[in-house]
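Quick question: what would this complex look like in 3D?
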Amino acid sequence: MNSTPAVANSHIKLTIEGRLANIGMVGAVTRILSSESGFSVMSSTEIELAVVEAVTNVIKYGLLELPSSDVELSLTYYEQYLAIEISDKGIPMPSQALDNADGSVFDYLEDDMDTWPTSGMGLSLIKAVMDRVEYSSMNGRNTLRLIKLMESVDATTDS
Amino acid sequence: MESMTIKHQGAVAIIEPQRKRIDASFAIKFREDVVALVDQGQKKLVLNMTNVEFIDSSGLGAVVSIMKVIGGNQNLTLCYVKDSVLAVFKLTRMDKIFIILPNEEEAVARLQL
């Protein structure tokens, strides 16, 4: 990316009531918007997956599925990348959670059923499909920021 | 809408989820319903994923849990898995532990070996 501030092609903001029943709609909207913005079918699906995983985590662990609380989803489509922010005012993610999601959950033994994971894969999946993942918690507001580069952009370019 | 349909072919139960998405809103019920079948004595299962367009880690975890309960991939096969769903299996390497076949006929036949 060059030093000129990026200009957003479009910016969409959604407020999601903290119920798991809302996750499907959020995912579908994210996928459609991403496809319309030029991402491939597979990348749009990956973006949908990341957003669904992130929003699910917030609802389950941050908001404890209290429907009176909301999750805010912001999607900003730039020429070269998509910036996603998932924000809430619930319980922050544990400080090491993101670092600990290093993909090792997928290093199970194929021939040992006891090692196959049935949970704890969400953050690792987000990191696997997004180009950058950052988390901040400040003044009672938690924000997970995700970046997905357009396929035509070199992934080594700093964004 | 019922969450899944079940039919039998010999000793094999073919389960077809009726939901497009197996995510956190459905995964627990899905797992519970299938495990109930296993508890009732069903020993061979095919998951026909024709209708499923999306699966997340919750859904995948439910399917893994089902496979653990039924005793491994010699007792469970999947079929009609869409690319969008297969992608999640591949991201987690679970395409190596699940037997995923192109159609129901092959999925059933594999369990009858």
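Answer marked as accepted. Chain B has one domain: 4-107.
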